[in-house]
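Q: Sequence in, structure out?
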Amino acid sequence: MAATIRVATALACAVLTCVAHAEPARATLPAADDLASDGRTALRRGVPLVILFSLPGCAYCEVVRRHYLLPLAREGAAGERPLVREADLSSAAPLRGFDGEAGSGSALGKRYGIRVAPSVLVLDGRGRQLAPVLEGGDVAGMYGAYLDDTLATARRALAEKR
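A: Exactly. Output:
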């Protein structure tokens, strides 16, 4: 009986240790796989299209995705919040561009001069850049302010185009 209790206790401790050290599920954004469709939606709503360029296993990308872009994609009135998508800089997976042509996350990054992950690019519905690229992760705790500034610049540029 005492041996059974010890074994059960050891198993419970092992399970709790695994749970405590388990990596949280990766947060996900919709893939930037059909920019022609996303562009039409952005134009119709009059909102910017925000693309996170990331790399697999990038811890900084996960922080930007989870703490800044997922809330941005979910908060506010549906018709007013920006469309937020993600493109893998290392991916050759098919991606339909604004012009309807086939491409990839890697090719899209090259088109806009994206060199690091994470990078956040804000475009209008036709694929024109609305603000400077926001490069890098949240190392100083100021990322929210930088993102807000980038989005404000993009919204002003959109308003001027109307």
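Helices lie at 2-21, 35-45, 59-74, 105-111, 143-161.
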